[in-house]
Amino acid sequence: MATTATGRPPPEVVQPPTTSPTIPTPLDYSKLFKPSVLNHHVFAAGGQNPSSGGGNTTPSQVPFKPITYLHGEPTIRFDKEEIELMINQQDLRFAVVGKFSYGWPEISSLRTSIPKQCELKGEVRIGLLCNRHVLIRCSLFEDYLTLMSKPNWNIQEKGTIFSMRTFKWSTWFDSEEETSLVVTWISLPGLPPTYFGEAQLFSIAAAAGRPLAIDVATKNKTRPSCARIKIEIDLLKEHPKRFQIEAADETGIKSKWYPFRYDFLPKYCTNCKLQGHELSGCWKLHPELMPEKEQGNEKGKEAAAKPASRLSMAIPATGRPPPEVGHHPPTPPQPLDYSNLFKSSPTIPNLTNTETANNGGNLSYGGSSSPMATSIPIKPIVYLHGEPTVRFEKKEVEVMIHHQDLTLAIVGKFSHGWPDIAFLRNAIPKQCGLKAEVRIGLLCDRHVLIRCTIGEDFDTLMSRQTFEIKEKTRPYLMRTFKWDVSFNPAEESRFAYGWISFPDYPHITMESLPFSLWRRQWVPQLPLMRPL
C-alpha cells in the first residue's frame, strides 16, 4: 500500500450496509448556544436565573425554541402565553394597519403626517409592512381608539390627498386579506340610567363584542336617554338584536328587554376576505356583477398584470378595491368569547361575597391592569333561548343607584311641548328655586331627568304638582314625579307627595310622630317630605 505525497495513508473505503441508509437527525440549534449565552437572552430583561439559586419565576422573554420537522419541513411552535409575551415585547398591543387605496407617500413623510393629521397624543412608530400597508404602533390606548374609530383617513402630503383605511393588526396578518374585526359604536336606547356605570355597560356590551370605552355624555351623566359604548366586533359572527336585564327587588325578580342599536357595520365577503361587499355581491364569484366598463377594459387588465408601483395602485370608480388574488393560509383559530376575556382582579371588592365571574374585574385592554373604582363586579352573560341576559341583585341595584346620583332623582314631564335641553339646564334650577347643583338630561320625549344633590331641592320639586317654566314669553307646564328603576314613559309613578295634618295633636313634633294616627289630608299644617 502506497502512501500519498503528504505522507498520510489513503482513506479507507467502508462498504455501506445492505439496508437503507439512516438519515441523520437534524441538529437542535437551540442547544448550540452555550448556557451562559442562553441564560443571558432569556433572563436579560429581569427574569431570575435558576442557576443563581432563586425560586422558579416566569421568564420575561421567550426562550429559544427547538425545531421540529413535519413531513420533512421545519416547524416552530409557540404557546399562547409566549405569543402574548412577544406581542408586548414588540409593542404590538395597540398596533394598527393602515391600508392606502390610491398610492402612498414616502414612509419618512408618513411618520410625521399621520400623528399630526390624525391628532395622536402619544408616541407612535410607523413602518412599511408591504405595498400599500403601513404598521402603526401606538403607545396609548386612546390613540388606538382614535385610529380605529374612523373608517377612512385622508392624509395630505404636498398637495396630494392619500386615502388610508385602518384595520386591527393581528398575528395572522395577510396583505391579501382584510380582517373581520372592526370597531364601532352601539347604543342602548331606553336603558335606565341605573346601569350607566362602566362595569354594568361593559357587562351588557360583552354580549355584542369586546367593550373598549364609553362615550363622554354617558360618562358625564348628561344624556340619560341612551348609553353608547365603543366595541370591537367580529363581522363574521351573528350580532344580537336585544338583551334582557333582570333585577331583584322586594317583590322578586323583574325583567325587561332592551334593543341593541349598531352604528355603521361594513359588509364582509368570506370569499375574497375583503370588507365592503357581501358574498352575494362578490365579483370573483359573480363576474356578471362587474360594471361593463371594467369588463371590457383590456388596458386595465394588462396594467393589473404588471407590478404595481407605489403611486399607480388605485381603486376603481365604483369605490371598491380591486379583487386581490392570492393563496390564502389556513383559517386561524376561532375568535375567543369576548365576555370571558376579562380576568378577575382582587382590587375590585365583591358586593355579594361570592366568587367573581370569569369575565369580571379587570377592564384593561392589551394586558395592562386598569381597575375600576366601583364595587359592582363584571356580571356574567347568561343566554336564555339564545339571547343574552344580565342579572343584578337587589343590593347591587341599590349601589348602582347611589353611584349614578339617582338617590334624589326626579322625572319632569312636560304636557304641551318642551324647550331645548340646554335651556332647561339653566331655567329649571333658577325658576324652581333650587339651591344646589343639579344635573338635567333628556330621558325621552317630554321627559327630563333631574338629579338633585341635596334633599331640600328634592322636596322643593316634589312639593308642587306643576311648575311653569318660561322661555321668553312662552310658558311650559312641567309635572314632577319620583324617579324609579322601573320608569316607563307610558306610565306615571305611583309615588306621590302630599301634606298630612294632626288636629288632635297640636304639640306634636316630627320625632314623636305616631304613624298609626296618620290622616292623609290636604291640609298644609305639618310638612312631611320623606319617610323618617
From TrEMBL:
Region entry Disordered, spans = 1-26, 293-342
Q: Where is the composition biased (Pro residues)?
A: 319-335
Q: Where is the composition biased (Low complexity)?
A: 16-26
**What spans are recorded as compositionally biased (Basic and acidic residues)?**
293-304
Pfam families, A to Z:
DUF4283
Superkingdom field: Eukaryota
Domain DUF4283: where? 89-177, 404-491
Q: Which PANTHER family match?
A: GLYCINE-RICH CELL WALL STRUCTURAL PROTEIN 1.8-LIKE, RNASE H TYPE-1 DOMAIN-CONTAINING PROTEIN
Q: What name does the UniProt record give this protein?
A: DUF4283 domain-containing protein
